[in-house]
């Protein structure tokens, strides 16, 4: 079950891949300064995930104007994320939750992703959005069982505007 609005967001540190190599990103680095939009997505090199991250990436200035940092989180390793980001020109900071700990902690892991294929994809992130305010409290939650369904970015922006 996903974490609820009003819940203190669990802090985490996850790696991102930069031109200089892997770098840790800690959620609490934003506390006191800006709000954070966490976008959990199933996996890189897939159509809907590419659409989501490219759409958000093209609007990063708008999120910055709303005083929000945006992170995309998947269970892919940071090197796969980097290759995908380069191929698709994704500018969102991608965080690797390779062991699915954060995905499970936020309550958005599939028990089995694509079970009809029997590939053993356990712990894959459901497409989800969380807004964590400057105080570390979750202010918005949206979770989709259907991986093809995108978050409602207009509602997300409206909530960020309230929190600005």
| CATH architecture name | 3-Layer(aba) Sandwich
Q: What's the story with the biggest beta sheet?
A: 5 strands, mixed
Low-confidence stretches: none
Measure the end-to-end span.
28 Å
CATH C-level class? Alpha Beta
How would you state the average pLDDT, rounded?
93
Element-level helix/strand string: EEEHHEHEHEEH
Strand ordering within the main sheet: 5-4-3-6-7
Percent in helix: 25-40%
Please, could you describe this protein's structure?
The protein has helices spanning 47-58, 60-65, 78-88, 101-105, 153-163, and strands at residues 13-18, 21-26, 35-40, 68-74, 93-96, 127-132, 138-144. The chain is built from 5 helices and 7 strands, in the order βββααβαβαββα. The protein has one domain: Glutaredoxin, CATH 3.40.30. The chain is of the alpha/beta class and 164 residues long. It is 27% helix and 26% strand.
In brief, what are we looking at here?
This protein is an alpha/beta fold.
What is the topology?
Layout lengths: L12 E6 L2 E6 L8 E6 L6 H12 L1 H6 L2 E7 L3 H11 L4 E4 L4 H5 L21 E6 L5 E7 L8 H11 L1
Parallel strand pairs: 3-4, 4-5
Antiparallel strand pairs: 1-2, 3-6, 6-7
Primary descriptors:
5 helices, alpha/beta, 27% helix, 5-stranded mixed sheet, 7 strands, Glutaredoxin, two-stranded antiparallel ribbon, 164 residues
